[in-house]
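Board work, copied verbatim: Helix-hairpin-helix domain-containing protein
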Amino acid sequence: MPANLTDQWPLILIGVIVIVAILWLLLRPKQKVTLSSDTPVRPHMQPAGEGKNIAREAAAATSDVAGQFLNAHVHEELPGATGAPDALQQLKGVGPKMASLLNERGITRFDQIAALSNDQVEALDESLGAFKGRFTRDRIVEQAHYLARGDTDGYEQKFGKL
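↓ predict structure ↓
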């Protein structure tokens, strides 16, 4: 029997290599997973625009009416958005996370940011957590004035390329 093993060693070696290759193909990880802090925004994940989230609109309307009875300015503190949302990430200093924070607070357009008063900017700035101070440091309201009126040439002269 030992003579048979010494004669058959090439076939045994090929068999072991084939078995190892098959096991590697079957048991290897199927996907390479990398964790990132940058979350992609897919179309179904984007914030709902006007008319797409009836519950949110109903809550805003209810808070407006309740605010009138209680003599409190609940929802009308922010200027209303009319039209399709703008790409707030065009503003220098506004990345995906800050844009989502602004969207959560009802700010989706450049004209809304441009219409903010100093008190509203301070209150909004206080609520942005890690992004506190960004509005004044990056002059986001001033940038929004240019983009709200469509003055990209003036914007690029003052703030650089879009």
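The CA atoms of residues 90 and 157 lie 15 Å apart.
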